[in-house]
Amino acid sequence: MAFEGLSSRLQEITRKIKGEARITESNMKDMLREVKLALLEADVNYKIVKEFIASIQEKALGQDVLKSLKPGEQVVKIVKDELVDLLGGTDSKVNISPNPPTIIMLVGLQGAGKTTMAGKLANYLRKNGKKPLMVACDVYRPAAIKQLQVIGAQLNIPVYSEENSKNVVEIAKRAMNTAISKLNDVIILDTAGRLQIDDTLMQELQNVKKQVRPHEILLVVDSMTGQEAVNVAQTFNEKVGVDGVILTKLDGDTRGGAALSVKKVTGKPIKFIGVGEKLNELEEFHPERMASRILGMGDVLSIIEKAEQAIDLEEAERLEKQLKKNKFDLDDYLAQLRQIKKMGSFSSILKMIPGMGKIKNIDVNDKEFDKIEAIICSMTKQERKNPKMLNASRRKRIASGSGTKVNDINKFMESFEMTQKMMKQMQNKGQMKKMMKGLKLDQIDNFKDLMK
User: Fold this and answer.
1) CA separation for the pair 293, 295 (Å, rounded)
2) Other CB atoms within 10 A of residue 321 CB
3) Helix, strand, coil proportions of the chain in percent (round to 5)?
4) Range(s) for CATH 3.40.50.300 in the chain?
5) Which class is 4-86 in CATH?
6) Which of 180, 295, 357, 379 is 20 to 30 Å apart from 415, CA to CA?
7) CATH for 102-296?
8) Is there a contact between 240 and 206 (Cβ–Cβ < 8 Å)?
């Protein structure tokens, strides 16, 4: 996970300083030295680290902190505020034109993940009420057009392409006419990249920008390239001019320097982050939430938003009725499991819960959920409704059908029976009704407002 090393280091440092009864120049100097080393190891630009440390030192040794009853906590707040500022300060939304179609041009080097990102962005915009059209403007890379067509088919989102034309400007112009005729309100241009920046690439992008006039130029950058990603962002901004950055592969084992440096170096905000390989694993970038995650303070708002998108309210109401009748069966269990899976990997969700960052070695194997799903799907309808039918021979058949062992079936059924008991107890105490009410959208919106 991105920032893994940096996050653990900073959390350890802030825990130490939080417990200090007095803040002196000596213990502040020690803390700042550790912060500086942690940031440099995360591949953050040296000049930025220097400014970051100087700003914390100036504020942390101020009179308000020195006279505070809890000076350590005040320092931690300063560190968080400075980290938020370093990451961009405020949220930066994608620019949607009031006069459609909005044209978004994706640029970047080859291998950064532009084509996949075109699909992720189109999927994200569709979920937000838009009707996107993806345009294959990479006419050089072998199979680039086919890749975008495959992604479009998976998402059921249209793709405009021309197999025989090499004139990217004309392709983009004709795509605009198609979008207008088909009532597509967003056009996403998947442009060509190179293994390295060259004049030919830049000239082509400049031509498209001049002739097509995109409302938004987003640079797709591979965060795993570390500080080089910042250099690429700076060059693209100077040569073409970009409105924002999308960091890909932020789910990988990256040092995070790109995310911490790109805004300060280029002046351009990070607008989205790719957090996985799946086409729904794209998140808006929120500086304050990311700073909270890095410092182990959790990210409750993002959990709520994921739940808001994943949870089917009709299904939640149906489950509530089932629980009232004490009829929580394996079909219900499977439905809830699938809704949780829509929110992303379970381990990533756990890390967004405040305080969970302090727990070392959180290791949740999401493949176990796939195994449970396979087990339930290998049962008959009657067996899912009445698990007490599962005798030895039935369990052997289910194990064979799901590619698991009988012992796996036994363990799962023990776990399911415990879940049933817990659900029954919660229902009897009225806790389940409160929890279900918490899934209503208006309740979620109210909570989000309070958290701001």
Assistant:
1) 5
2) 10
3) 60, 10, 30
4) 102-296
5) mainly alpha
6) 357
7) 3.40.50.300
8) yes
